[in-house]
Amino acid sequence: MMRRRSTLIAGCTALAVALGASACSGDPVTAGGGDNGGDKALSGQSVTVAGVWSGTEQKNFQKVLDAFTAKTGAKTQFTSTGDNVSTFVGSKIEGGNAPDVVMVPQLGVLQQFAAEGWLTPLSTTAEQSVDDGFAPVWKNYGSVDGTLYGLYFKAAHKSTVWYSPDALAQAGVEAPKTYEDMLKAGRTVSDSGLAAFSVAGQDGWTLTDWFENVYLSQAGPEKYDALAAHKLKWTDASVVKALTTLGELFKDKQLVAGGAQEALSTDFPGSVEKVFGPEPKAGMVYEGDFVAGVAHDQFGKTIGKDAKFFPFPAVNGGSAPVVSGGDAAVVVKAGKNAEAGMKLLEFLATPEAAAVWAKAGGFLSPNKKVAPASYGDDVTRATAASLIAAGDSDSVRFDMSDQAPAAFGGTKGAGEWKILQDFLRDPADPKATAAELEAAATKAYKG
Question: Are the beta carbons of 241 and 218 closer than 8 angstroms?
Answer without folding.
Answer: yes
